[in-house]
Amino acid sequence: MPPIIEQSAKARLITDAPHHKAVSVTLRYDGADPLAMRIVFPPEVSLDHDEVIWAFARDLLESGLRLPSGHGDVQVWPCGRAQTILEFHSREGVAMVQFDSTPLHRFLKSSYSMVPAGEERHDIEVENELGKLLHRT
Predict the structure, then answer these.
(1) Which end of the chain is more exposed for a tag (fewer CB within 10 A), N or C?
(2) How far is residue 56's CA from residue 72's CA, in Å, rounded to a whole number?
(3) Residue ranges in 21-119 assigned as alpha helix (H)
(4) pLDDT truncated to tens, each residue of the chain (137 aa)?
(5) What's the pTM?
(6) Which contacts of 19-25 are long-range, i.e. CB under 8 A and separated by 24 or more positions?
(7) Strands 4-14 and 21-30
(8) What is the domain class of 4-134 according to CATH?
(9) What is the H or E stretch that residue 122 is in?
(10) Which of 128, 98, 120 is nearest to 21 (CA)?
(11) What is the DSSP string of 8-32?
């Protein structure tokens, strides 16, 4: 079973309210799905009171820490020198979340120590080929 990295992080939900709501989220990287990373939001911030998990490309987060990146459901951009904004689009609406950039950098560094950049597809190809060999009769 491939290893999983999980790291807690603080985030601020950006809303129309005068004060942004701080929440604890979990950053997750699974070696079995090396191209993606996940952010797990607690049930209390969702409309249906269930845990919400957003998955998107790991390299989107990396590029979004330096310059505005992404289109479609997930967009990421730096906000000043020490903050990063993630914007999530769904049928229910749009959520904007602000993070300190340091924990995101630390998380990416951990994920790259598990699966280096450029080797994500190689791991998937090897796994697929092994699966084909093991299922031959």
Answers:
(1) C
(2) 11
(3) 58-64, 101-114
(4) 679 999 999 999 998 778 888 999 999 999 889 999 999 999 998 888 899 999 999 999 999 999 999 988 999 999 999 999 999 998 888 899 999 999 999 999 999 999 998 877 654 454 555 555 566 54
(5) 0.83
(6) 20/98, 21/45, 25/97
(7) antiparallel
(8) mainly beta
(9) helix 120-134
(10) 98
(11) EEEEEEE-SSSSPEEEEEEEEEETT
Tokens of 120: 């994500």
Q: Which residue(s) pair with 34 in the sheet?
A: none
With contact defined as beta carbons under 8 Å apart, do 14 and 20 qualify?
A: yes
Half-sphere exposure of 56 (CA within 13 A, CB side): 22
d(CA 51, CA 31): 22
For residues 20, 25, 31, 37, the Cα torsion angle rounded to the nearest 10 degrees is -20
